[in-house]
Amino acid sequence: MSYSFSYDVIILAGGLSSRFGSDKCCFEVNSKTMLERLVEQFDYPIIVSRSPRRVSKGILVLENGEYKGPIKGVKEGLNYVNKNRVFITGCDFPFLTKNLVEYLCNKPYDIVMPIDEEPQPLLGCYSTRFLEENIDKVNRLFDLIRLSSSVYLVGTDELMKIDPSLYSLINVNRITDFIYKPIRIKTVTKIIINIT
């Protein structure tokens, strides 16, 4: 059975970049910033940042107050979501493609995210209703998994059908992450159904 869901995209661009050494959203890869590489993949992304940024399209949401991690950014971004699903990522996934996001967001589960060494909540598609009802109950996006009635963890075997190189999973935390492609652990897809 085929599904088709509409989705919004929240790009979190307000992290501290402490391991990278400078603002990684502004770091250029092939003459484009890591943030712009993501922005150009989507029609109207919601970019949440703690500082002003130049973006070519979408909406820039400025996060006020002290840094409190991704949860605070997601809450800010949710105020602008109007589709029934929302994909959440950070600017540190510069090789993410729209094809992969559409693949994840067209699955009818509360949460759909890749599982590499562990589940990747910052590469996840969420039911907007589920997120709105549960975001205040958690301190980390990862914690949403236990609150969900249905989670689809997409294994690397399945992801390779959409992204054979698995470049979409490259999370750039340090400058060396561009040089050393991480060895991928082979994972299989898992579906978690929590019956309460």
Percent range of helical residues:
10-25%
Q: How many structurally independent domains?
A: 1
Enumerate how many helices there are, as a single number: 6
Could you tell me the number of beta strands? 10
Proportion of residues in β-strands:
15-25%
Describe the secondary-structure layout.
Blueprint lengths: L6 E6 L15 E2 L2 E2 H6 L6 E4 L9 E4 L7 H9 L6 E6 L7 H8 L5 E4 L8 E5 H7 L9 H4 L2 E5 L1 H4 L30 E4 L3
Parallel strand pairs: 1-4, 1-6, 4-5, 7-9
Antiparallel strand pairs: 2-3, 6-8, 7-8, 9-10
Compact overview of the structure:
By secondary structure, the protein is α/β, with parallel strands linked by helices.
